[in-house]
Write a structure and sequence with these properties.
It is globular, with a radius of gyration of 20 Å. It is 37% helix and 24% strand. It has a seven-stranded mixed β-sheet with strand order 12-11-7-10-9-8-13. Strands 3-2-1-4-5-6 form a six-stranded parallel β-sheet, with helices on both faces. The chain has 336 residues and is α/β, with parallel strands linked by helices. Helix 8 crosses helix 10.
């Protein structure tokens, strides 16, 4: 399977190095308008570097394109890849509005190519174990969930993150991980209420989801934290509860903010305490789905539904009111 990457920033590097570890995959091209980034990634991988996506399409024999660009560019390059007959693996969020997301899904369907979206939390072992505990009935009926995901502001490294029109802010870029996971683990969402405070170097959000089955989840996301990236989830049910905390430690830790002179090339990428790299597991799974024609653990429609909940949260932030979602349907039915 021949793969190329468009977007050679942090996630582009993650995808590239993951593909390099797959014996049945060849990375044939890397592309970025910042040609220096493409050249750097080319030096690491041996793949040809390109400044132009069209040039890479024309000069490279490839099967799959990884779209690891800033969120506001996902639609444009997904459509270009699909129209060229290439399968697409797109980083989350799928898009920054539902109309663009629907257009991306439909374009891939019309051109007979697969579309996969990188909701990688579904491949983190601790999150898989939490879903299994729910599915096996170990927690009984799920009642209340608390989830948080916090880290430094990626806009300090890549300024486009601070432009809500380009990144969607902390809800669309960071909290969407927990939104997708909880919809996967618990079920469809009935209503959403959100609060979001953005000021200078801080973007903080608190969102409450009420699920169709009556469960309630409180989700917290924060950009601007001076400590290490961290996540935590607590799921309480009628028979018990389960917790996961990436920072769980019996020792005292003091974390200082990076000095202003410290240079970071890329934004933080969440890691897992497991032995297997979740990004490699995710990408290998997507490649396998292309080879076998099988359905992925996370579908393009799942990504659309996560974005739908995200858009409801942003609408609630603007209106100050709860937003009620329509009963779950497949994308084709919604847009028919």
């Amino acid at each position: 399977m021949k793969v190329a990457i468009v977007g050679c920033g942090g996630m582009g590097n993650v995808h590239a190095l993951s593909y390099m570890n797959m014996p049945d995959v060849t990375l044939v091209g890397v592309c970025d308008v910042d040609f220096e980034l493409a050249q750097e990634l080319s030096m690491k991988t041996g793949a040809a570097a390109y400044h132009s996506f069209e040039e890479m399409l024309n000069e490279t024999d490839l099967d799959v394109v990884s779209v690891t660009l800033p969120s506001y560019l996902h639609k444009e390059y997904t459509l270009k890849a699909a129209q060229a007959g290439k399968h697409v693996i797109c980083e989350k969020p799928l898009a920054l509005n539902l109309e663009d997301a629907a257009a991306m899904i439909q374009c891939c369907e019309q051109n007979g190519v697969r579309l996969f979206v990188g909701h990688v939390v579904r491949f983190f072992p601790e999150y898989i174990q939490m879903k299994q505990a729910i599915d096996e009935g170990k927690l009984g009926r799920v009642g209340v969930v608390h989830a948080k995901r916090i880290g430094s502001h990626p806009g300090d490294v890549k300024p486009w993150f601070k432009d809500a029109d380009k990144s969607g802010g902390v809800i669309a870029d960071l909290m969407i991980h927990d939104i997708d996971f909880l919809r996967w683990a618990i079920g469809d969402v009935k209503s959403v209420y959100g609060l979001n405070h953005r000021v200078n170097e801080m973007d903080y959000a608190l969102v409450t989801l009420i699920f169709e089955n009556g469960a309630v989840a409180n989700l917290e996301a924060f950009w601007g934290y001076h400590g290490p990236f961290q996540t935590a989830v607590e799921i309480a049910g009628s028979k018990g509860l389960i917790r996961s905390d990436s920072q769980k430690s019996s020792s005292l830790q003091i974390c200082k903010a990076p000095s202003s002179s410290e240079e970071r090339r890329f934004a933080e990428v969440p890691q897992s305490p497991g032995f297997s790299n979740p990004y490699e597991l995710e990408l290998a799974h997507f490649i396998q789905c292309i080879r076998e024609g099988s359905e992925p653990i996370v579908s393009a429609n799942d990504a659309y539904k996560a974005l739908e909940i995200t858009m409801a949260a942003l609408e609630s932030v603007q209106t100050g009111k709860s937003v009620y979602l329509q009963p779950s349907t497949q994308l084709g039915e919604e847009t028919a």
